[in-house]
Amino acid sequence: MSTAANKQSATRALPNPDPIRRVVQEIGVPAYRARQVLRWIYNRRAQSFDEMTDLPAELRTALAERIAVQPLKIVKMQTSQIDDTSKFLFELPDGNRIESVFLRDGRRKTACISTQVGCALACRFCATGKGGFIRDLSPAEIVHQVLAMERARERVTSIVFMGMGEALLNTDAVIGAIEILTSKDGLGLSSRRITVSTSGIVPGIKHLAESPVKVNLAWSLNSPFNDERSTLMPVNKRYPIEHVIEALKDYTAASGREVSVEYIVIKKLNMSRDHAEALAEIAGEIGAKVNLISCNPVEDGRFATPSPEDVVRFRNHVKAAGAFATIRFRRGRDIAAACGQLRARS
Ligand code: SF4
User: Fold this and answer.
1) How far, in Å, are 83, 268, 272, 309 from residue 316 at the CA level?
2) Are 161 and 178 in contact (CB under 8 A)?
3) All domains of the chain, ordered by start, with CATH?
4) Nearest in space to 1 (alpha carbons), one of 182, 175, 255, 183
5) Residues enclosing ligand 1, CB less than 6 A?
6) Are 109 and 153 in contact, with CB atoms under 8 Å apart?
7) Is residue 339 annotated as part of the catalytic site, yes or no?
8) Of 224, 227, 69, 59, which Cα lies nearest the Cα of 140?
9) Does the pLDDT value for residue 19 go beyond 80?
10) Which of 10, 133, 232, 284 is most deeply packed, by most CB within 10 A?
């Protein structure tokens, strides 16, 4: 994407549906006050209405009676002794709970955030999928995960939408959240530092391609064969591999952004030479690099973690077949950092 287009995304106004705008309207004060409040919350990271000193005191009191500056409550925060990863369990105002993760890699500080409470897609290797779907998160609830983690840890430099839920089954809210994250009145992050992960929801990919936000996409593939993938990820019956490939090619052409393929390596299941070759072929077709992730054992023990040597061997097969492949090592092994595990335990 051109620099001009980047600039455009950084100057776009904050989205309209934010509850603060509604409350400001209800109170009957001029609309520009909503923008001031939103700037205080998202850009200046205010922790209370008292800090918003350029707002009239009566307005601050009226707002404080109706809305919370920090709508997410930290129920649990666990930090890994091994790699400094922090896993958060948040409670939403309606009592539902979601998870988010803060990861540090040198100067890069990444927030891995959720987009739904639970998930309807029931991928067999996923703890979140086991609990079913409860509801979508709003744009504000998505962004407040980042703000809450920043308060507990440090300022975030990148965002991955890889927590609980299928982001592209809540595409409007995800787009709204990205607008807050990239707006100069919001968190002011570069959209190049934002990656949305999807299991391959074709209409969602198209919707994102047509939207004004341009971010990196990660496709969670996990098997290059339709039959096997449908067993692991039932969503594949609806959106088979070849349909997702076409949608991703269109996305790359429309956005100019990177697409990557995420591949959870499961012991004795999806790591043969045939898998490596078929995976490399798919990656080549969409011009994607491959990220290999060692399977996190889900607590019923059906999917086992391969040895590090096996993962390296598989990576070498993928590379020999012509794809660019890296291994992402599991983070937070000592703190149940796999998606949905902390919530399931609580
Ligand atoms: S892996 Fe992602 S899409 Fe699949 S069930 Fe878990 S949260 Fe949903």
Assistant:
1) 26, 17, 12, 11
2) no
3) 1-69 (1.10.150.530), 72-345 (3.20.20.70)
4) 255
5) 119, 121-123, 126, 128-129, 164-166, 199, 339
6) yes
7) yes
8) 69
9) no
10) 232
